[in-house]
């Protein structure tokens, strides 16, 4: 059996990967898709990264997905006169929406989100700098939030503010995000990640903006779950999106770190049940920013995400700014490969008791059931939209699934589908089924090791280019085409 890593690796690009040789080694180490973090860097810097990824992906003959991750309404303190202050437990401190942005001191500081005083009330807990500093709201006096420090420490410029339990009214898309979204669409990314969505409406707003920029083959939308209130709306958010990310940093600050593992499992289960890819992100190999090996806890974290059947796991600063970006990818790859050898990662009874309402879903499920219950070495899923391979990717198996498509955007999206290997192949060039089957198997044989007696499953539709048109399943023997 050909053993190909099924869990996808999403790596964030940054200064540590801007060297072409480093980026090439990173992609060859096992990266399936890259993330551009629009919280940092200019459009020119991001454009250079996009061009470099596309150039190298052609050189190494692999499809590498590109995700633009919008900053979102990161609610932050403004600046301090001396860049930072020290806050002691029990001290009084004011968050002042009217204060000059550069006048912060040990008594008060400005805030960039001017509506924050309207969103909080006495008794609320505000968590700053990812929860390292905590303050209780004592009084809201017009645009001033009078607080008492409950957990002190050093507070510096531009640190984030969260309200424990969520509930801040800031919209998911800022003016900066809209400009970044337009730039990302024009430069042909495969996914756009929306930060801090509150509900499905935030996702639908992003889709409308994308539609104005690109009506044909638009990028997919990834909803980053970072707000407490998003958990209550999780099904609707997932249905409105093209995928979801468990963004554990801000999420942990809002709901408490002890809640995150259970919420992570819930989101993975919901996304897979609703036929959407899911990414687990934040601090997966955090120690490898400065160390060449992961901690045992990080290895376990990655392994558990794989066992829960997440589609992708993400590296952030580890690859964007770390000292060991390539080693971090290699470590992730090792863990994934080992965990995926376990029987529970290869067999599934998912949906076998359900009735199917759509033909393409029925064909996808039948192909997976057949593949898991006979001697079959690979599945070829010919698809224009990528929907059939996506449905297949919901089922645990050890059998490689090749997503054949001639559509650039579909190939890019499939880079995040668990267990799907995107392959460029144009079904429109063939006049009959026999020619098509023969060409598909010949194309597959060029990239893998198969024997004459190996069986291959092919799924396709009668009409090339029709989304949702998969209606055919064939089981073919390689020996018949040699």
Topology readout:
Elements: E1 8-13, H1 20-28, E2 33-37, H2 43-60, E3 65-69, E4 84-87, E5 92-96, E6 108-110, H3 116-119, E7 125-128, E8 133-141, E9 144-151, E10 153-156, E11 161-163, H4 175-186, E12 191-194, H5 200-213, E13 220-225, H6 228-232, H7 234-240, E14 243-247, H8 248-255, H9 260-273, E15 278-281, H10 296-307, E16 312-315, H11 317-320, H12 325-340, H13 359-372, E17 378-382, H14 387-392, E18 401-405, H15 408-414, E19 420-424, H16 433-445, E20 455-461, E21 470-477
Parallel strand pairs: 1-2, 1-16, 2-3, 3-12, 5-6, 12-13, 13-14, 14-15, 15-16, 17-18, 17-20, 18-19
Antiparallel strand pairs: 4-10, 5-9, 7-8, 7-11, 8-9, 20-21
Describe this structure in words.
By secondary structure, the protein is α/β, with parallel strands linked by helices. The chain has 3 domains: 8-73 and 171-341, Phosphoenolpyruvate-binding domains (TIM Barrel, Alpha-Beta Barrel); 84-163, Beta Barrel (M1 Pyruvate Kinase, Domain 3), CATH 2.40.33; 359-481, Pyruvate Kinase, Chain: A, domain 1 (3-Layer(aba) Sandwich). 34% of the residues lie in helices and 23% in strands. It has 16 helices and 21 strands. The protein has helices spanning 20-28, 43-60, 116-119, 175-186, 200-213, 228-232, 234-240, 248-255, 260-273, 296-307, 317-320, 325-340, 359-372, 387-392, 408-414, 433-445; strands at 8-13, 33-37, 65-69, 84-87, 92-96, 108-110, 125-128, 133-141, 144-151, 153-156, 161-163, 191-194, 220-225, 243-247, 278-281, 312-315, 378-382, 401-405, 420-424, 455-461, 470-477. The strands form 4 sheets. An 8-stranded parallel β-barrel has the order 1-2-3-12-13-14-15-16, surrounded by 9 helices. A 6-stranded mixed sheet has the order 6-5-9-8-7-11, with helices on one face. A 5-stranded mixed sheet has the order 19-18-17-20-21, with helices on both faces. Helix 14 (387-392) links the parallel strand 17 (378-382) and strand 18. Helix 1 crosses helix 2. The mean pLDDT is 92.
